[in-house]
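Protein modeling request. Please complete all fields; requests missing the sequence field cannot be processed.
Requester role: graduate student
Desired output: 3D structure, token encoding
Chains: 1
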Amino acid sequence: MPRLPLLLTLAALWLVFSTSQAVADAALDPDARPHVVSSPQSADSAAEARFSVRVQLTALQEAPLAAGIPARIRDLPLREGDSFKKGDLLVRFDCADRQAELQRAQAGFSAARTKLKANEELSRLNSVSTVEVDLSRAEVKIAEAEVAVRRAHLLYCRETAPFSGRVASLAVKRYQRVTPGEPLMTLVNPSRLEAECIVPSQWLRWLQPGLPFQLHIEETGDTVAATVDSVAPYVDPVSQTVKIRAQVTATPGLLPGMSGTARFEPPL
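Delivered output (268 residues):
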């Protein structure tokens, strides 16, 4: 019976080897690994990320101003960041030459009227023809139009604020000579902001004007309320996206150019 212990030993070694090989195979087989069940919290996070997009704040009222005439800047009362009210003076140009042109046009208008009056008197005395009187009337109209043109030119000698806001950027300095079309400054009203973002076109099934959503601003860390204001009437055929605009609730500290994340909750 000396073979019995040997057989038992061999059987034990085979059992240990088989068990170790099964454990190793199970470790390599991904289907044999235990599945991790997502918790409700991770599912909520996934849904939140699914309906979140990048967004940027823009000003509803923003205007770049440019020079309308070649002239030297006489007054420039504001600096970058300064506030102003609608109608406040922003820039005044030195328009002495244009003022002189207006005075010359007014003198020509006065002379034309005097000549017309004289020719009308002579016409009653049959001293001049009706043609001379008609020509004098035409000269009066031409002189009057010239005065109107010169007055219109003087309107370019000063720039006033078209709305209340702040100076976002200033491109010129006092006493600088500018040319027509040269940028002067950029005006912005930071109290009236809107949000712009690009969303998947599939969202059009439920995304409509008037839909409220939350807007998280990165620069300030604030979360503000917003409402979809308009949806662009065009879907990009390549990216299958559409642009939307939203009204942002007035919140202190928000500025144009800030960015963040818009989180939508589709209606059930």
